[in-house]
Amino acid sequence: MNRHIPILPADNLIKSLPRPVFGHVDSQPNMIIPGPHQHPWCQLTYALQGHLQVWTPYARFIALPQRAVWIPAGVQHQVHESSPAEIRSLYLDGAALGLNWAACRVLAIDPLLQELIRRFSTVPIEYDLAGPDGRLAQVLVDQLATSPDAGLVLPWPSDPRLLALCKQLHHQPDEAPTLAQYSRQLGLSEKTLTRLFLQQTGLGFRLWRQRARLVHALPRLERGERITDVALACGYESLSSFIAAFKEHTGQTPREFALRNQQSHANT
Length: 268
Known about the structure:
5-stranded antiparallel beta sheet, alpha+beta, Arc Repressor Mutant, subunit A, Jelly Rolls
């Protein structure tokens, strides 16, 4: 029997999921999956190659290869893919499956779950729930339920003063004013600004800026830019400090990330 690859129609053309777990292939390079939107089912978006970012009104969620972003039902979001990227998405009835995570999160995807996601992208849309594909879906859900958090999140503040500052940090990563300079800019004391950062984002000023810079570093490294040039473009005065910060947040050096990206491209 011929097996076809299911492709999900546009969100505004589908009213309900055909099955509790639904997968499809999406490997279009440099694609932004429709602008801010939401849907009544949960979504798991996984980067086989390249990296992806899920933007919500309150945070940026960054998934490197072997990482996935869980998006609960009803959460407004936008998915940004690197170029080239290879993405697999699952759409799930979280309530029916017992996956009741209420907030977006970045999950680590182990080799078994990776193969389950890859395999599920090829099953028929209306697969037999009681047959092999239905059992495969249940194994996939069981594995997903135990996947650990993998962290790389850039929380977005709601306070207008801090939001303006974070936008400035996000769009101008090569600038390096001190906390004292930003405090004077906002008319706040350093102590007040520090407390506001922690209250609004859960992160200190230095850590938030490091993650914002990392968001800019990833696509540059994927394009093959020199690591020294990337470090300077992201506001680091020394290569060693950039390497240390990158490894702290990703578990790998910029060179290791770039080499793995090149190897994955060569294998496609």
